[in-house]
Amino acid sequence: MSRVLVYVEHDGEAIRKGSRQALGVAASIGGAQVEALVIGKGAAGVAAKLGAYGVTKVHAVEYDGAYATGVWTGAAQSAAGDGDCLILASHTSFARDFAPRLGARLSCPQVSDIVELSGDLGGIEVKRPIFAGKAFETLKSEAGRLIVTLRPNAFAEPEAGGGGAPEINEIAVPEVPAALQTTVIEVLKPDTEEIDLTEADVIVSGGIGVGGPEGFDTLRPLQKTLGAALGSSRAAVLAGWISPDHQVGQTGKTVSPQLYIACGISGAIQHRAGMSSSKCIVAINKDPQAPIFEIADYGIVADLFKVVPAFNEAIAKIKAS
Ligand SMILES: Cc1cc2nc3c(=O)[nH]c(=O)nc-3n(C[C@H](O)[C@H](O)[C@H](O)COP(=O)(O)OP(=O)(O)OC[C@H]3O[C@@H](n4cnc5c(N)ncnc54)[C@H](O)[C@@H]3O)c2cc1C
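Above: inputs. Below: predicted complex with flavin-adenine dinucleotide.
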């Protein structure tokens, strides 16, 4: 194969960080012709920016509606065409939904949530966590067509610059057979302007150890000082202390920040499944036997209500000096 097709997610103007990382991976594959697929409102404007990432051709679908499985799968199928192709996408909610369906339509392998990719277009090797992050598996594909989703933040972001204007191939909004149609009834936006957990470089996360909804107020000054996103365990979500969009783990979000600070989180396997690929893990827990210490780079056995404010004060001082 000689083509790499990257699905580029955007907000109508800016390209999402995970998609920029996927473009960087595509550009690192020697000899590949990099193409992109852009769907949604503002697709043409986003398409024009992609030359800076080494993209030579963009398949653009101008579409006003909310995410729809059939539209995204159909558009990706058109962009992939009949020939050999490596298809890359960031492992977002959209890609989790359409990538396996695309694999079925193209009759090709699909590998989700990878953290490493190597090889060339003659044979791609990928590594991904399995058994909720307890082990890794390495897979090699020599198939002519392959679809891979990349864990956000597991790959470096490329420098954008240079590159000519890409060729634009406008694709009509695909017709979706009635039997396959899904309808979006409502889109629930997060109620705050907080940093997206999956794209954050730093996450301050709280669990049952914070003691109640007001316990998260102890974490917020540190979150602010570090310019971090706020995460939580599922137990804190189920207790109603924080909204579900903060949940990290197997049934929450998968994150790979540079720094993950777990405060009052025991480190159950389902929580670790969502954060164990963080580059540096700091755990603050009263219990020295807490499983989170097994994966922590730095462990503090102490009361979080004493440590977190002191930690925040020290960092604020360093930042101010
Ligand atoms: C199918 C399934 C899916 C799941 N998905 C997820 C998921 O996506 N994400 C997730 O997080 N969980 C998930 N869980 C739940 C998971 O098993 C645990 O129950 C949960 O992660 C525990 O949350 P916690 O660490 O906040 O609470 P606990 O396990 O109760 O731990 C609280 C910790 O706080 C410490 N602590 C208490 N007070 C303080 C203090 N003052 N200072 C410092 N430390 C203190 C304690 O020592 C303890 O270690 C799932 C479970 C199942 C069965």
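The chain has a mean pLDDT of 94.
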